[in-house]
User: Fold these one by one.
Assistant:
Number 1:
Amino acid sequence: MKTLKILLLPLVLVCSVYLYAASVSQEAFLASLSLEEQEFLASHPSFTFLSDPAWAPLEYQDAQGKAVGLSKDYLDAVSDLTGIQFIQAPVSSWQEGYEQLLGGKIDLTTSLTPTAERIPLLLFTKPYLTIPLSIIAGQQVGYIGSLIELGDRPVAVVRGYGAQQWIHSQYPSIPLVLVDTVEQGLLAVKTGDAYCMVENLLVANHYIQKLRLFDNLKVVGTTTYINELSIAVQKDYPLLVSILDKALAFIDAGQREQLYRKNLPNMYAHVISQRTLNLMYATIFVVLLVVIFWMYTLVREIKKREVAEGEKKGSEARFRTLFES
């Protein structure tokens, strides 16, 4: 029993230090709020939130339907500072949840880019992450420098995402293939139902890996569009936006780095296709065969030389004996 207490003591000390640091951090944050903001927090202990079920690794749902991803971790960090309880709104798709958000049935969403269509409808915090939108096409497609080069080729975009609004507004001649998820869009490009897809670089890379489309799809260019991920809030809560902005600014660089490392482990990783791996394996196999053959030939040659040396020494010995006789 004494041994168990000794082993548990460091864990208890670490937890105590963490809880104390978290408490001090929360107290410092609450002290930075105005009296009006503090009163708002006291009268609004909880809010419902929308999280995209299929936009990994930024936000998605686990096997139990629980919201996970980078945006949810940011929301948890905000909750630790403010004391607000964020309650996940049960939705089966982004499109369904977005309609409920615009209808006032959900208080906020964790990750939304301000667009000309959205700004009159919702309030936005300052962005906590910016990611460019890329063009994904088949392996046979060369570099695409601008969307204007696509002409009348069909482009897959997720229904309700910023890419749909931007392309429809600026390139009305481009036919859009509307899909419900990024996975559907990538598969549409693979099957030829769409010439390419415009999507967030991190998200597209994640689903290309998940669907094992290395040999089929690749990033062929970038766009001028950027996802500026912000928390979007109902128009009725301007004080909540102010509080969220202060909470996001309170999250230091070290904590942000931890969140990125947890959720974006392959952010800058280069994807190696299965074809390339097979070529590497074949090359290694051939090199091993050459090395084995070379070693076998070398050993055989050494043995021949040893036999020749032995015969030479024996001949010399016989000659010496004969000479002495």
Number 2:
Amino acid sequence: MKMKELIDGFSSQLEESIHISNKYELKADREITSCVICGLGGSGIGGEIVKQWVRSSVSVPVEVCHGYILPGYVGKNTLVIACSYSGNTEETLTTVQEALSREAFILAISGGGELEQMAQSKGFQWIKVPGGLPPRAALAYPLVQLVEIFEQLKLTTTSIKKSILNSIQLIRSQETGITRLAKTILEQASGKQILFYSEDQFAPVLLRACQQINENGKELANYNVIPEMNHNEIVGWANSKANLFVIVVRSSLEYIRNKQRLDITSALVREKAQSIEVFAEGTDLVEQSLFLVHLFDWLSYFLAEEKGIDVIEVKVIDYLKDSLAKSIQ
């Protein structure tokens, strides 16, 4: 399947993923006092997004692990969620082995692979999602399952799945406008490196946008968030001559002081570089996040299309994995 079809099918993936989540029942056999979500790349970004979604309602600390080593506090009362779309992510499999040695409560999400085999042999719960896609084009599958885990284990008091259902309708009703806006942004950004700014609650969405531009568009992209960048990066604009195009994400949900900070920062940036303000559609953080994810996915695709390059190809990552494999032979 082509990347264009996969991006176009984002709302359908969300819908299918909700159907999958309704088919299983999860139970913890102990009190959960902390949670670590383990995942990298397209499998790991879902953890960052869900962590932000549950931040104000979650009953335990939540951390996302993007490497080989678990935090020191992980123990019997820690929920470790291993998320690897392929089921073969080296770093995530390593954390699962460590979680097993610490007798943590483990749940896994994958489309198969070694993670499925470990779940079956070690006896921890495993959620199967449809496999075979580039992980970056399968975000909906682990994302919804992560939400389901938090809701079924009663670690959050909000009904996020209801907002995801609303997001499906929002994206479908706005599809034409979303693709048009993505093309408009690209026309203005052509030939420049993209820099994203937003309020901190959208940090994982901007990270996802940069990752998509990296993998789909084969370009560098960066982001920072308010209020943190007001304490350091903003000074760098004083004499900046970088060839940048700045996308400032705005939202109806902005904290009042952050709204004021974004107003001032956006005006300062406009004096130094070409920029655009993009407004997130939707009534809550979940809807607005998924709207922006879809918008920036299209932006990354149109960037690749403009350059005439293969969107799917990730030869550098393949080379890195091959080289690492040879190093342990």
